[in-house]
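Usage

Read records sequentially. Each one opens with the input sequence:
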Amino acid sequence: MLMLVRLVAFVALVLLTFPAAGQQAALRTTAQQSELTVAKIMQEQTTWVGSSPRSVSWTEDGEWIHFWWNPQGAFPADSLFRVPAAGGEPEQVPAAERRDVQPLFSGWAHGSGTYTEDFRYKVFQDDGDLFVLDRQTGALDRLTTTVDVESGARFTPDGTGIVFQRGGQVYRLDRATGRVVQLTNLRSGKAPSDRNTDDAQDAWLRQQQIDLFDVVREQIQEREARDAQRDRDRTQDEAAWPPVHYYGDGFVVGLQVDPAERYASFQIGKRAEDKRTLVQNYVTESGYAEDLNARSKVGIEETGRPLFVQDLTTGDVVEVDFSQLPGMYDVVPLHRIEEGVAVDSSDARVVSASGPYWSPDGAWAVLDIFAEDNKDRWIARLDPSTGDLTVLDRQQDEAWIGGPGVRSWSGGIGWMPDGRTIHFQSERTGYSHLYTLDVVTGAVRQLTDGPFEVFSPQLSKDGRTWFFTSSEGSPFERHLFRMPVEGGTRTRLTETVGNHDATLHPDGDRAAILYSFTTQPPDLYVKAFGRQAERVTTSTTAEWRAYPWRTGEIVHIPASDGAEVPAQIFVPERPNGAAVLFVHGAGYLQNVHRWWSSYQREYMFHNMLADMGYTVLNVDYRASSGYGRDWRTAIYRWMGGRDLQDYVDASEYVGREHGIDPERVFIYGGSYGGFITLMALFTEPEHFGGGAALRSVTDWAHYNHGYTSNILNTPVTDSLAYVQSSPIYFADGLEDPLLMAHGVIDTNVQYQDIIRLAQRLIELGKIDWELASYPVEGHGFTEPSSWTDEYRRILELIQRSVGPD
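and closes with the structure output:
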């Protein structure tokens, strides 16, 4: 009963949504039925975290900050608020005004085409239609009102036209006349001249029909006559149309036209063989079990997407030949070469390209190319007339290429104001830093350097200044920095310890900042550079602020390989002689820091455990983000190797520093954290006394391709990596109490994964393990009742396995 009351108090804290009044009353009543109160967490009423602001943007004129917020749960859902640029009291935007088109500032990306060269006009899309804003007068001109979706709008270099996409084609709109001209004419299927290319057998049969039957000959003659007349009627009109290109089967992706409107580029995707998995949902409105389409498994055949360039004047199309890239035939990974496997030079590697990234005037085109095994990255200049490539930079990693801002979806490539230099990020020095590259000479220049990482770099309006977030000074903080465009002295613009998620003002002299600290969820501040930040929102409740939330001490655990592993420890005032080790998920994620954790529920749970006397430890084990390339790739070919050893070292650390016996050390976590928990209990049981594995990967051969193949290659090419990394092969080592919790409709780490392990444990005759299934939950739980049940089970197992006698 005491544990249940503690759990109810905890659940009242961790639910970040605001439940119905009846639910709140039930929680209060249950807590009031006992004299036990978790110190200051429950004080006669439910305590709530609150709802933090999100999606912060400046208006184009820089006079207002807009953000979504739900202060104290006052609304059914987040509502739009605004505050003046100088700060002040936030006000809710009226519904009628909220529905108005409100162009928001999104940064001065050089070469993006969003603005005219003088930055007076901005073209943008809203609800699938096009608008132009006069930033000087504030006048808003609606260009389209269609059921089709217009997208990808940009100005022509001289500002007289707007290029956009609609229905899979590119168009140009003349701003003076309103005339719309189609620039591309891509069509699926075969060209008419290729439609009757039968094989010899089919051609023989067709000719036999023609020879034998008058009706067949008459049908062919009538069709040919109709086609000839139609061709004559259309000849004059089609002379003004863009040249047609038939791309066959598949689908078009990445369609774009260069700023000079000479070339169109596009990739053709093919629908892969249907090897996607199905997840069944049993609790449905219909009463029938329903299939949910999910991902495929690791090891799918990689085909890539060929890139084509069409000359819009002649209609000629060339395919970019990626086999010209150096290393394209190095198809055997280094570990296989070391095992004596010969390099196979018969087939080129599969690659994928993003871009072309065109210079603002269309003079230069650059591709960002990655090998599908993610061990090579090429930045290459493209000759659009021939498809030839000139490699400007090649990055290689025997593990896999990654890090902040390296892939196109996390930063990619941008143009500098001179129109011949690009900027990009790379981990070539061991940390993700900012570089420039002259696309004419190939000269590379590193702009930042040191044992820290750079995040989200952007240029000022005048192109003279960089702004970016960085971990410089401490891996446990994130601050906003300013730097000259050519590199050099970096100026830190934020002071307070924590994380500063900054959205720059259009003038670059201030920022709207979502600031958080370990004990403070994100709130909005306005920071004029050189002055103290002004707080705009306070999202937490008075009850929340009344409890003395722990910051935890950040320590470094000596690892068995000599490294110093960052950890955050909560030491109770009255230790009970037991410890709980938490393992964060995602692998590449940071949870030891001085800002609000993405594991806010667990953070609050850990405070409750510390109140109960448990020593609690978070560890940024090997593979965590924030510590550079070597830390990130230390798990290559062996997940559950070096990362798990960091937790073995953590168990020894709490024993050495806090006198805690290894049999009184509990380990738990979700997703990747659940996987580490299983590996800990299966392969290192002498260092732990129990564990809870939530939504766990149990066999990496059954996880997705993109994440898993980077780290373990594929099951066919590297079966050893999969066997030594998958808990299901080590289940016979289970000696301690184990809880496994899993959502039945988890389309990420699928329910099949945990069911296979359960069957393995049954066949091995293992006891003292439990599988808790949650029928309506996916990978991230959403229902309060599911959270309550899961943490009740975790807490009960902690108490039973390692807790007080």
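Summary fields computed downstream for this record:
- Residues 358 and 365 are 4 Å apart (CA to CA).
- The chain has a mean pLDDT of 89.
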